[in-house]
Design goal:
The complex is a heterodimer of chains A (299) and B (352).
Chain A lengths: L1 H6 L2 H10 L6 H12 L4 E5 L5 H11 L4 E5 L6 H4 L1 E3 L1 H11 L5 H8 L5 E3 L1 H6 L8 E5 L6 H13 L1 E4 L3 E4 L5 E6 L7 H6 L1 E5 L4 H11 L5 H16 L8 H13 L7 H7 L7 H10 L1 H9 L2
Parallel strand pairs in A: 1-8, 1-9, 2-5, 5-8
Antiparallel strand pairs in A: 3-4, 6-7
Chain B lengths: L6 H16 L6 H13 L5 H13 L5 H8 L23 H9 L2 H5 L11 H15 L5 H5 L7 H11 L17 E6 L8 H13 L4 E5 L3 E3 L9 H11 L9 H10 L10 E5 L8 H14 L2 E6 L12 H6 L5 E4 L6 H9 L2
Classes of the chains: A alpha/beta (299), B alpha/beta (352).
Amino acid sequence: MDSLKDNVTTSTLSDIFIREGYVADESIIIPVYLAIKMEKPLLIEGEAGCGKTEIAKVLAHGLNTELIRLQCYEGLDSSSAIYEWDYLRQLLKVRIEESRKTAEEIEHELFSERYLQKRPLLRAVSFEGKSPPVLLIDEIDRADEEFEGFLLEFLSEFQVTVPEIGSIRAKMKPIVVLTSNRTRELGDGLRRRCIYLHIGYPTKDKELHILRLKVPGLPERLGEQVARISERLRSIEIQKKPGISETVDFANSLLTLNCKTLDRSMLDKTLGLLLKNPNDLSKVRQYYMEEIEKLVQNE
Amino acid sequence: MNKEVSSFSIEWLTDIAERLRAYGIKIGTSEVIDSATALSYIDPTDRRQVYLALMATMIKDNTKLELLDSLMAGGRSEQKNVYTVLDYDHTSLKGEAEWALAATYSPDDMSASPLFKAGEEKVKSIRLSVNLLLRKYGKRPGRRSRSSRLGSIDFKRMMRRNVSRGWLYKVIRSKKKRTKGDAVMVCDVSGSMEEDMKDIFPVLWLFSSLGHNQAFIFSTELLCVTHVLKSREMTSASKELERYAGGLGRGTRIGYALNCLATRYEDTLKDYSLLLVISDGCDQGNPNQIDSSMKRLSEFVGNIIWFNPLADQSSYKPETAAMVASLPYLHKLLPLKILMNPSQLRKELAQG
């Protein structure tokens, strides 16, 4: 980690993002740079589909290291996040060895690293590679507050404790990326430990740039139309506004359908790729279709 | 790029942190340390990088980012670009880094705004009016003063005196305790109130210097300013307030501000408090929020009096949504100018 921490600069990070096809301006690069430099977790908040998880993937790929992912969900507990004992193998071992060895000998062998199933946090801590791994703790807002509390210790010490083995401290501090869709407020303790980054919806020009990178072969005019529609839809009061991933999917599907330019009928057929809520779809179809059609036609 | 953070930067950071805390953003010492560390890793001559580093290490809430925008942009000063405002003595600053930080934030620039500049000629009459209001409503009905107008009997002292001095029987009463006025003033400093600020500022300043009173100002955010107005000099208090409240927006969210008062500063409100609101009632927020906030506040405090500068005109009718929502909870709706006329205020208060 020392070498990465010492060698990383904003320009090297910028190069990595460009190389990996992620459109990142200074507002993204500076917090990522500070997180690596200060060895602190990076907390990324923003709407779904705006590229939060992608940052961790890009970092792992760009730095040529492993991406360790912990997907959070309601009811996630520390055992699923740190380690579990491989009970079946332990049982098998007992059956095989019970006639040959004493109980103490078998017990000593059973609770060794060989029978430990490493879960993401332990894997990140015990990682042995040239550069530190990227630990992605995805959608932390979906996990319970208890788990968030447990995570505080891990994020400040980068150490986990297995009672039968002892404490394992990270030789190289992993690059930790936490993402949140803000379905619930995260605790102050967690925020305090992190470097904060908020990713909002992109501007039309930035989105067009993303489309050019992510959807090669997309006609310029069609890309412009897609970016304009997404921008307009985000300004409407709807429940689920289209993110960048929806826009990319929309553009990809138009390309697959061999569409050169958007018209009303094509828009009607494919609008479901941008709006994934039936209420939003009916609202836009009822009140905004004509306006969007005009918007698309006015080059 | 990894330079040591100078004491100037630390001072600047703590100042920014203090002002952000006043807006209810929780910034601990660890955040300030993180910000200082972050500043040492970036190019401090690049204003954009300084801004992004502060966003990442200090604010940590995208809904509050606009506050940093306004603080770094120099608050209400609109005529000058932040990079042209360099009233600092450059020779006293050690390096280019400090020079750039000075460029991002200049208290001199903020105090140049005419917003809080106020005349002193009306101070006397305002002092009288504020005292009148506090005497009428802002008193704590202490138990001792309620039991008897002469003061309650002090049995302990009475026994001791009668026995030691050989008196047969003499009633000793404890002296009535004069309680300090406990009142809260919430003052609208949004764009629409700018013309009235020369009248409002002395009121705010005098009010916060009396008793245990609390003074707040609001536009799009609520800000407690009692400690800022403690200066004995009105002009220096005005400058200090200008510097402190430079980040407030120009819009008005009365409901939000009152709701903040009822929730964030609940402990400053007591059942005997007098709540004074100074606002023109021109609101950009939701009237339902004003209604619910006023209802909540009316449950907390003794009386609510609203001073409206628009009510100075005889033809004024409280017809804005904010005023309509507030009226049922008001003890009195008075014109702002009445504060400059104590005799008229006395008459008004005598009517009950």
